[in-house]
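Q: I'm writing up a methods section and want to include an example of the input and output format. Could you take the sequence below and give the corresponding predicted structure tokens, formatted cleanly so I can copy it straight into the document?
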Amino acid sequence: MRGSVEIHVGDNLEVIRTLPDASFTLIYLDPPFNTGRPQERAVETARSTASLSHDPVSEASATTVVRRGFHGREYERIRGDLRAYDDRFDDYWGFLEPRLLEAWRLLADDGTLYLHLDYREAHYAKVLMDALVGRDRFLNELIWAYDYGAKTRKRWPTKHDTILVYVKDPKAYWFDSEAVDREPYMAPGLVTPEKAERGKLPTDVWWHTIVPTTGREKTGYPTQKPEGILRRIVQASSRPGDRVLDFFAGSGTTGAVASALGRNAVLVDHNPDAIAVMCERMPHAGVFGMEPEQTLP
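A: Here is the clean output for your methods example:
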């Protein structure tokens, strides 16, 4: 049975702050990579604390936001070190960090968070996420490898993205390896015919093409991710009827895949082009937050 889809129009931080705690089994985030675009934000102050908080971001005043790191002084130190190392990192994370903290609040006790980045930010993200939520909540580093486009001859060509995987409770997270589409063995002659026919469970390196320019999936949205990548994530880390969240929704691949697999998806984006693509792709979706006078492109 097809799952429901909600498309929320607006600033994703404002929207997700209205959602209830622990309400999603799976959260997939594909944020904009660090392009240097300036972000407007209030003055920020880091304050250490030794305890976990269900409300990790709180407003101390109209102009000051108090960050409560999950691991107290460790968090404050790491964030300071990274700021000193590369000030562009702090600009980017001034935008992304509060959204990650909200995502963690929204994640159910058996839930999993997938954070999709590229080589420019993945290593910074791993260090800071470990400090925010704890290294014991880190489950996997997934490598999505692909091969397309021009290749430089001045260095090793960059042809992969990184997906960091964190679980809310290392002892209670949902993971169903049997539900995942299996893939062919690279050397089928080395296994039994039965195993070769069934295929193997994917490892943490995923070889998958990008969305073909003439393929069925193509929407024209520039950062569209292939359904195969999201299908594997949804199959492994959620069950039919579970709720799935993507608040950098873009072309809506997360919602399209989740709905087809019987999950209920909540998507958030503020870009009118993204909303138009999602509405065309998922005509059964409900749209929320659009002003009456707004029209889609």
